Backbone:
């Protein structure tokens, strides 16, 4: 295989199709678009489409538009328009032109009259229920509407009166006249316009008939001169309809190419489900850090780089499949490992007192900010005789392979000294509430002259200097791989994880008092955290982005072993 052939082989099928069309002169360039409906917040699946459409335009020196396919005024809001723009920019992309399908309502209507005039569309009076009955099934052909053979003049008169508001909502529709016996149900005289008196977020009450998505989408691509309409696989069966419209109208004909949408285990990304969770209070809004929305991941602390890297790693496929959520979590771990500053925090504290520490003495110790990035430098941390450590880092009686602190044992305090535990203090119920240790002055990190070796190193925070903070421990929202496919008698709500959010008080090293909303930090040995927008000078709030390791995978493996 030649080098050129190998290079082509490494490209995914959409790149190969684009290059073949460019070489054949079918299009003069790569002009793409990202066309969301403004009826909800974008989810992580949309990130793949954003990266693909904007990425292809950049790769081939073309353009990528942002277009809102706003054809349903009852579900669309300006809030969604603004959130979508924010998400795209946060991911690192900028559109060449901003458009709305509603910009084209006049042109679409003129084209509808053109199709009527040429005998390719008609006004139908069937009710919605009758229309479903006439449509047929996947195995049986449909049958013609009794209104299918209206004259051109009668259809033009009716569509104009529909537009003028003479008829009640839902009483009539405009349909394309294609083939009621087609094996593709999308070609069985699809609806183009319906009567709907609803205020549109941009056109107000100028229209009382609204175009359907299928009538609007392909023609909007044509108007904008799009060369490659990149869609997800559910639109594959709609492609013949879009082709039919372009051919009958004799207008610019983009090429539609479909790819597999991004589906992740444990996530439920349908807008209907997400809207219900928001409206019924199962989550705290669209940007709740447990939500699969891009704004939710942003607030959770994910980085745009990690999401772009994940989308690139997931690749472009022709067939739907489910990707393990661990791959997304690992993508953010990998990026934050490289860029996040390290800080110490204790989230489940127990007091450790150094009994031979000089009373009132405070000593500054030095710690590395990020071992992956020498340019990040070092910081100083106050060390005293009264510390907080994690409950899990101590056992009064411990097994032989427990290498943290135990009674009669020794451990190194990160960036500090080796301490030896000689006693504990217990409450009336026999619970250990304080650990008593001595420190070895010759064992200070960075200048240890003792020659002592210990196997364990734990983190700590000086109790006197600790910054108290609210820490939100976010976890997966659902407990099963596919919450969208519930058992009989259940709904997706039955699989909500009751432990998806725990709020605790943490004790952090003093440097974190200066952290700003959006700052991402590795709490050493615990995980990655971000400063939440709820933070104020009086109250620090941190969200857990992701643990250091895949604890769910370990739990699942243990369960299978048991």
Residues:
């Amino acid at each position: 295989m030649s080098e050129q052939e190998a290079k082509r082989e490494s490209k995914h099928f959409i790149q190969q199709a684009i290059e073949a069309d460019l070489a054949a002169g079918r299009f003069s360039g790569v002009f793409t678009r990202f066309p969301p409906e403004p009826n909800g917040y974008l989810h992580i699946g949309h990130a793949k489409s954003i990266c693909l459409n904007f990425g292809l335009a950049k790769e081939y020196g073309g353009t990528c538009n942002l277009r809102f396919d706003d054809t349903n005024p009852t579900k669309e809001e300006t809030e969604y328009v603004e959130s979508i723009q924010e998400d795209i920019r946060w991911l690192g992309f900028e559109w060449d032109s901003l458009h709305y399908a509603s910009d084209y309502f006049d042109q679409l209507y003129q084209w509808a009259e053109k199709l009527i005039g040429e005998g390719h569309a008609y006004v139908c009076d069937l009710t919605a229920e009758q229309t479903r009955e006439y449509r047929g099934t996947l195995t049986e052909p449909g049958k013609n509407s009794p209104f299918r053979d209206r004259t051109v003049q009668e259809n033009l008169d009716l569509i104009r009166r529909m537009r003028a508001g003479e008829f009640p909502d839902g009483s009539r529709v405009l349909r394309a006249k294609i083939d009621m016996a087609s094996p593709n149900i999308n070609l069985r005289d699809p609806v183009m316009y319906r009567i709907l008196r609803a205020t549109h977020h941009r056109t107000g009450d100028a229209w009382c008939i609204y175009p359907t998505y299928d009538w609007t989408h392909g023609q909007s691509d044509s108007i904008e001169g799009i060369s490659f309409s990149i869609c997800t696989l559910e639109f594959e069966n709609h492609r013949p309809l879009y082709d039919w419209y372009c051919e009958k109208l004799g207008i610019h004909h983009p090429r539609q190419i479909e790819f597999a949408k991004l589906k992740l285990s444990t996530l439920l990304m349908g807008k209907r489900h997400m809207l219900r969770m928001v409206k019924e209070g199962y989550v705290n809004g669209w940007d709740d850090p447990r939500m699969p929305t891009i704004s939710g991941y942003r607030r959770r602390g994910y980085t745009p780089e990690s999401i772009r890297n994940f989308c690139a790693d997931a690749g472009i496929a022709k067939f739907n499949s489910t990707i393990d959520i661990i791959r997304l979590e690992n993508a953010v771990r990998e990026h934050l490992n490289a860029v996040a500053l390290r800080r110490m925090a204790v989230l489940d504290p127990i007091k450790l007192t150094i009994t031979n520490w000089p009373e009132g003495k405070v000593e500054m110790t030095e710690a590395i900010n990020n071992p992956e990035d020498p340019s990040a430098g070092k910081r100083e941390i106050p060390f005293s005789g009264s510390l907080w450590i994690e409950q899990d880092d101590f056992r009064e009686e411990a097994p032989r392979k427990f290498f943290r602190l135990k009674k009669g044992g020794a451990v190194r305090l990160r960036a500090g000294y080796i301490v030896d535990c000689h006693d504990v203090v217990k409450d009336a119920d026999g619970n250990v509430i304080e650990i008593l240790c001595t420190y070895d002055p010759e064992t200070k990190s960075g200048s240890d002259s003792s020659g002592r070796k210990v196997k364990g190193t734990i983190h700590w925070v000086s109790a006197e200097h600790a910054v108290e903070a609210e820490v939100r421990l976010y976890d997966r929202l659902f407990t099963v791989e596919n919450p969208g496919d519930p058992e009989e008698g259940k709904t997706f709500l039955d699989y909500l994880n009751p432990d998806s959010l725990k709020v605790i008080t943490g004790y952090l090293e003093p440097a974190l008092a200066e952290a700003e909303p959006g700052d991402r930090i590795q709490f050493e040995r615990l995980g990655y955290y971000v400063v939440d927008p709820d933070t104020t000078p009086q109250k620090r709030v941190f969200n857990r982005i992701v643990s250091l390791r895949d604890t769910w995978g370990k739990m699942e493996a243990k369960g299978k072993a048991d």
